[in-house]
Design brief:
heterodimer; A: mainly alpha; B: 172 residues; alpha/beta; eight-stranded mixed beta sheet; 5 helices
Chain lengths: 113, 172
């Protein structure tokens, strides 16, 4: 589990996935403080992963991690940081604008900030 | 029909990137609620799974060592629909592992019309669990059309019902 592929830590990816899961389970049982903690942790890990993917030249995974970071910040209750990330992404990845706007619409519709 | 013995406690080894404790426990709780004695016979209809093809498989599911206290706590924490949803994730994990040998490697991006990502190619996976057999077909149609027709990337769909213990796993 501690292997590193390129400059992206496999362990970090695993921990991030598990933090998202822990956030989702906390969300399901209505435990907002716990959900916020886990989603915040996941959001920061996604930002680290996004930078690592950039360094490897993997633009797809980098964009996915940034989008996931925005989603995690929002689900943690920090919609302001999420909106800043989303705006940055719309400028950086104009070819992905549809996906980005779909995520934003989903968050606005289904997750109260 | 080929019978495949499998255990919920093997999920962390089959899909080591994810957390399985609560999901496995939910599956044990839901399976125990169906009645009968373990291992629980879960009939899986597989369609077009790479490396496996199609056909019926019976997963003989050993719920493992979860105690009554843990199951009671889980039932107090999650409502029945949530338990069934989590149980479906557990059975999807077993189904993917014992058909094509696939690993669920990550949680899918919210809003992507998928729940998880599978294998090295990160194919999308959508999972649905229902408590009544009568709801299986409509759940399948809903998930299948949403995932397989809207996007052009490969995807898996798994739906399960926990009245008579059947499920359907497809790939497009």
């Amino acid at each position: 589990m501690s292997t590193v592929s390129g400059s992206v830590s496999d362990m970090l990816m695993t921990v991030k996935s598990r933090e998202v899961q822990r956030g989702m389970l906390a969300e399901m049982r209505g435990d907002r403080p716990s959900a916020a903690r886990h989603f915040l942790a996941a959001a920061h890990m996604e930002l680290v992963l996004a930078a690592d993917f950039d360094q490897c030249g993997d633009a797809d995974l980098s964009a996915r991690s940034r989008l996931s970071a925005a989603s995690c910040f929002w689900r943690a209750g920090d919609s302001q940081t999420a909106r800043v990330l989303i705006q940055d992404m719309l400028e950086t990845y104009p070819d992905r604008a549809t996906t980005i706007r779909e995520l934003q619409a989903d968050l606005e519709r289904n997750i109260s900030p | 029909m080929r019978e495949v013995p499998c255990r919920l406690q093997d999920l962390p080894n089959l899909h080591p990137r994810l957390l399985w404790e609560t999901i496995g426990l939910a599956a044990a709780a839901v399976l125990a609620g169906v009645g009968g004695q373990p291992p629980y016979p879960f009939v899986l209809h597989a369609e077009n799974i790479p490396g496996f093809g199609g056909g019926e498989l019976m997963l003989a599911i050993d719920p493992g060592p979860f105690g009554d206290d843990s199951i009671l706590r889980l039932r107090r924490t999650f409502d029945l629909a949530q338990q069934v949803e989590l149980a479906a994730i557990a059975v999807a994990g077993l189904a993917l592992a014992y058909t094509g040998g696939y690993e669920i490697c990550d949680v899918a991006l919210r809003g992507s019309a998928a729940d998880y990502l599978v294998g090295d190619h990160r194919s999308r996976l959508e999972i649905a669990g229902r408590s009544r057999r009568a709801d299986l077909e409509s759940a399948w149609q809903q998930k299948w059309s949403r995932l397989s027709q809207v996007h052009d990337q490969p995807c898996y769909v798994f739906v399960a019902e926990f009245e008579t213990l059947t499920g359907r796993l497809g790939f497009a």
